[in-house]
Write a structure and sequence with these properties.
Layout (H helix, E strand, L loop, with lengths): L1 H32 L13 E6 L4 E5 L4 E2 L5 E3 L5 E3 L3 E6 L5 E6 L5 E4 L6 E5 L2 E5 L4 E7 L1
Antiparallel strand pairs: 1-2, 1-11, 3-9, 4-5, 6-7, 6-11, 7-8, 9-10
Length: 142
Amino acid sequence: MAQKVKEAKDALEASEKIAASIAKIAINVSAEASPQQNGTRPWEQASAVIKLKSGRSVRVDASSVSWGCCSDSLALDWGQSIPFKNMRAFSILDDQLTVEILPLQGEPVKGILASDAPIQAKNELGLYTTAIRNIARVDFIR
């Protein structure tokens, strides 16, 4: 009888070790399979929320956002151009198209947009287009 109890305890210990190993493997596999690294997704998987001055919001694919027909950045009147993929957000502050850009790193950048070209992007419904003057803020969500 004592032998059977010892065998049962040994089997239980072995089962617990196997379960702990499986749990570690599952955690490692989950972390490797996750699209997020350091709290962010790759740009191609990011989304953007365009908030209009009217209060309406539209969610789009971040990598599809363009200014004008094909620019993947905003150009400021003093020569600086900042790609959307390097932004956390941007806001249109007034009718003169003063923009405040929140870069991924560093301090906010202000300037006046070099043109009043529209913003275009794609979402699950199709192509979305709006005048830059209609935008209050665009947040890029990674």
